[in-house]
Amino acid sequence: MRQEKRVAAGVAARVAGIVVAVVVAVTAGLAHSPTARAAGLSIELNKVEDSAGACLGTFVISNGLGHGLDRFSLDLYIFDKDGVVARRVAIDLAPLRSDKTTVTRFPLIQGACDQVGRILVNDIPACRSSDDGAMLDCLSGLTLTSRAGIALTK
Known about the structure:
Blueprint: H1 2-32, E1 40-51, E2 54-64, E3 69-80, E4 85-92, E5 100-110, E6 116-129, E7 143-146, E8 151-153
């Protein structure tokens, strides 16, 4: 009987160890998963494409702030390949729902996309929580990435 209790206790300890190892592995995998949503606000320039004489930019905005934004606008500057400002774009992207990813597309410049050197997020003039109406500083914690071969900076 004592032998059976020791075997049962050993099996229980091994099972507990395996459960802990699995939980740690799954948690670590989620933390590094490309689908794991980061806290904060992120904007990705996903792609650019020429269309009817203009360069259209497709942006992916992920709101991981934990609350919605009923006001959210961007002040962008588009630079050409020589570093000269080609155009300023002010765009209203509100509302952004809490813990939601949004995709939007709009013209960057009149002309081909190969003329665009980089895009600067100059400011976020409006960023207001839909929960309590508080104005937020969304620029300082903003994460920017680009898959389009054109730098997206702040």
